[in-house]
């Protein structure tokens, strides 16, 4: 058991207060309250000294305590003699006072509400300008595609196609089958009451083709690929790799953003078709096992319900989603700051932005198509 | 050493700022052809930002950067890209493209700006890598290399297009003294053989005295430049206490210590 930190006041000499430190002044033990000592300083004292003969062990705990006391003594015009302290403590105290507390960076303290509001408006305007500039750059990069040589490496493009398309198949299969199962469950419970089980096929088929296939594949790809794009570009921003491209005179948008966006725009509609088929299969499993329909019957009913224009509607949506996910992911990545924290923020923000854009654009498209 | 009186790069009345926070103001200096020009100063005084102004990554808040007769930031984007194309840049972290091998890193600018066949490019890449002592590392990825090797690979990429200007952002940061010195020697040799003008941001005194022919000193307290000229001359003649303090590592003794 280490001795508790404590101190005693010694007034044996006239007009001098000597503080005798005792025990182990470490961060493991709570220091005694300085109240007594501060009160003693208020009485007529000219100088303050320390005696550390009984001091057992010390660390920063002691120094913080001493700093409070010394500051109070100086404020009361009492001279402080550090001579009685351990030499190490004296040096550290001197060192902590050697650096001037002024900083060359002006810290902005509390701001008025008006100032903050103004800053917010300027931020929003700046962001809008950035988005517009980024869109313009992408459009220009797209146009260079028609002038022959692509501004990116074709190998990169095929890598992204594989990453976004084939590598996403397992997760898209799982989610789509389950969505088909859920849709047919929900429908079956209602339709069985009317003995109209066969219409489960209509419900599942239309639900997948018109809405859920595009929406689910979009959300999955936003989480899988949109986030990856933001993290890749963000990390490249942190490593100055994007600056290096710029100073080589190579457009980062053409070289990095374009192949990613093209891969997404190409693969997402294909994934959507795949998700539609998987969903219908998932629905048919329920139809066959729970509703006593035959597989042929179920599929024939689905075929009769669906028109090509309806499939086109889902495909159109997923093409739009592909553009939006690629845009959000790449924009957030390119806007990324220069720290690990900023990369995390860019990734999160890419996913959130993509999903918001997907849902909003989905409602807008659906509204105009059914009006 | 070539002494051409016409400055190839001139900075006039430059003010650097991030938003409303002014980093430095009234920066004026000229760089002659063949100079090894050092931008020095304490941490956080805006050395790297000054470099970013000179390589077209960040427009200055006020003032101008001149390359020969041309006002860099007044030019159209294409003309500016044309000037930047004549420059090689070595970034602080190396900034090699991490998804590509060393050979692909060095080859990319060549593929972009020349119509050479893949075989010729491969030969050029091997040659550039052997110049920096990395022959045989063509198929390595940047993550597989040590810090010093990454810096040298980045140097090979910077000299891929035989640039007229070489910009270095803290080339010896994070390197041991021997690697740092080897890099200095490499820079000297490349400058002499390429005939390039070199601009270096650094605060390594040893390399400043070893290679610099001209310099500018930026101060973060007064937010402006305090001196310009050959560092060895500055060490002998400069009267400004801040500059002297920096150049003598705070000892105040006016003598070059050869390391």
Question: Could you please describe the fold and organization of this structure?
Answer:
The complex is a heterodimer of chains A (371) and B (259). Chain A has 371 residues and is an alpha/beta fold. Chain A is built from 12 helices and 5 strands. Chain B is built from 9 helices and 10 strands. Chain B has helices spanning 47-54, 77-85, 102-113, 118-131, 147-158, 177-194, 205-211, 231-237, 241-247; strands at 7-18, 21-32, 36-41, 62-67, 70-71, 87-90, 165-169, 197-201, 214-219, 224-228. Chain B has a 6-stranded mixed beta sheet with strand order 6-7-8-3-9-10, sandwiched between helices. The model of chain B has no long low-confidence stretch (mean pLDDT 85). At the A-B interface, α8 of A face α2 and α3 of B.
Question: What structural class should be given to the helix and strand makeup of chain A?
Answer: alpha/beta
Integer count of domains of chain A? 2
Radius of gyration of chain B: 18 Å
Output the CATH topology of the domain at 1-86 and 201-252 in chain B. Answer: Rossmann fold
- CATH homologous superfamily title of the domain at 1-86 and 201-252 in chain B: P-loop containing nucleotide triphosphate hydrolases
3D shape of chain B: globular
What gap, in angstroms, lies between the N and C termini of chain A? 82 Å
- From the N-terminal CA to the C-terminal CA of chain B, the straight-line distance is 23 Å
What is the annotated CATH architecture of the domain at 1-86 and 201-252 in chain B?
3-Layer(aba) Sandwich
- Whole-angstrom Rg of chain A: 35 Å
**Overall strand count of chain A:** 5
Strand content range of chain B: 15-25%
Name the poorly predicted regions of chain A: none
Number of helices of chain A: 12
> How large is the count of helical segments of chain B?
9
**Overall pLDDT of chain A, averaged?**
89
Secondary structure layout plus pairing:
The complex is a heterodimer of chains A (371) and B (259).
Chain A: E1 6-10, E2 16-25, H1 35-42, E3 47-51, E4 55-58, H2 60-75, E5 79-81, H3 87-98, H4 113-145, H5 154-164, H6 169-192, H7 199-238, H8 241-247, H9 252-290, H10 295-305, H11 308-334, H12 340-370
Parallel strand pairs in A: 2-3, 2-4, 3-5
Antiparallel strand pairs in A: 1-2
Helix pairs in contact in A: 4-9, 5-9, 6-7, 6-9, 7-9, 7-10, 7-11, 7-12, 9-10, 9-11, 11-12
Chain B: E1 7-18, E2 21-32, E3 36-41, H1 47-54, E4 62-67, E5 70-71, H2 77-85, E6 87-90, H3 102-113, H4 118-131, H5 147-158, E7 165-169, H6 177-194, E8 197-201, H7 205-211, E9 214-219, E10 224-228, H8 231-237, H9 241-247
Parallel strand pairs in B: 3-8, 3-9, 6-7, 7-8
Antiparallel strand pairs in B: 1-2, 1-4, 4-5, 9-10
């Amino acid at each position: 058991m280490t001795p508790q930190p404590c101190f005693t006041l010694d007034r044996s000499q006239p007009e001098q207060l000597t503080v005798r430190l005792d025990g182990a002044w470490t961060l493991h033990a709570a220091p005694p309250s300085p109240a007594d000592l501060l009160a003693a300083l208020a009485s007529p004292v000219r100088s303050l000294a320390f005696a550390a003969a009984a001091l057992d062990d010390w660390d920063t705990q002691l120094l913080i305590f001493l700093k409070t006391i010394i500051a109070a003594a100086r404020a009361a015009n009492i001279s402080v003699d550090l001579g009685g302290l351990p030499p190490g403590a004296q040096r550290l105290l001197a060192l902590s006072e050697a650096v001037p507390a002024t900083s060359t960076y002006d810290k902005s303290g509390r701001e008025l509400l008006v100032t903050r509001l103004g800053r917010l408006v300027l931020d929003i305007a700046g962001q809008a300008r950035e988005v517009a500039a980024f869109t313009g750059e992408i459009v220009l990069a797209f146009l260079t595609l028609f002038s022959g040589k692509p501004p990116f490496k074709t190998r990169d493009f095929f890598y992204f196609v594989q990453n976004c398309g084939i590598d996403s198949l397992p997760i898209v299969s799982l989610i789509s089958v389950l969505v088909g199962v859920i849709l047919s469950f929900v429908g079956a419970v209602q339709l069985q009451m009317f003995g109209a089980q066969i219409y489960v096929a209509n419900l599942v088929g239309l639900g997948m083709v018109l809405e859920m296939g595009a929406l689910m594949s979009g959300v999955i790809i936003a989480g899988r690929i949109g986030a990856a794009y933001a993290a890749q570009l963000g990390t490249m921003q942190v490593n100055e790799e994007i600056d290096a491209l710029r100073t080589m005179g190579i457009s980062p948008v053409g070289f990095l953003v374009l192949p990613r966006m093209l891969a997404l725009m190409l693969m997402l509609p294909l994934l959507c078709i795949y998700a539609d088929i998987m969903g219908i299969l998932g629905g048919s499993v329920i139809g066959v096992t729970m509703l006593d329909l035959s597989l042929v019957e179920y599929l024939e009913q689905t075929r009769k319900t669906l028109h090509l224009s309806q499939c086109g509607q889902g495909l159109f949506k997923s093409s739009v989603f592909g553009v939006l996910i690629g845009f959000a992911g790449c924009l957030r990545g390119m806007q990324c700051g220069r720290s690990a924290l900023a990369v995390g923020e860019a990734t999160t923000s890419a996913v959130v932005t993509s999903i918001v854009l997907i849902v909003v654009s989905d409602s807008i498209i659906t509204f105009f198509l059914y009006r | 050493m070539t002494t051409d009186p016409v400055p190839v790069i001139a900075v006039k009345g430059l003010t650097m700022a991030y938003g409303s926070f002014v980093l430095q103001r009234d920066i004026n200096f000229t760089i002659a052809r063949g100079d090894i020009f050092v931008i020095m100063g304490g941490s956080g005084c805006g050395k790297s930002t000054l470099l970013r102004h000179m390589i077209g990554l960040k427009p200055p808040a006020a003032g101008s950067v001149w390359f020969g007769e041309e006002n860099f930031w007044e030019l159209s984007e294409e003309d500016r890209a044309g000037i930047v194309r004549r420059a090689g840049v070595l970034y602080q972290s190396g900034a090699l493209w991490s998804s590509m091998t060393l050979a692909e890193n060095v080859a990319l600018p060549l593929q972009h700006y020349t119509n050479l066949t893949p075989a010729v490019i491969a030969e050029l890449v091997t040659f550039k890598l052997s110049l920096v002592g990395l022959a045989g590392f063509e198929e390595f990825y940047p993550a597989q290399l040590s810090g010093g090797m990454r810096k040298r690979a980045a140097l090979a990429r910077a000299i891929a297009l035989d640039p007229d200007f070489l910009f270095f952002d803290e080339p010896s940061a994070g390197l041991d003294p021997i690697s740092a010195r080897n890099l200095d020697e490499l820079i000297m040799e490349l400058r002499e053989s390429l005939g390039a003008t070199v601009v270096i941001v650094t605060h390594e005194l040893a390399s400043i005295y070893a290679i610099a022919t001209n310099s500018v000193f930026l101060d973060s307290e007064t937010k402006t430049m305090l001196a310009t000229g050959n560092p060895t001359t500055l060490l002998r003649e400069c009267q400004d206490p801040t500059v002297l303090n920096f150049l003598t590592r705070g000892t105040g003794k006016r003598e070059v210590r050869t390391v």
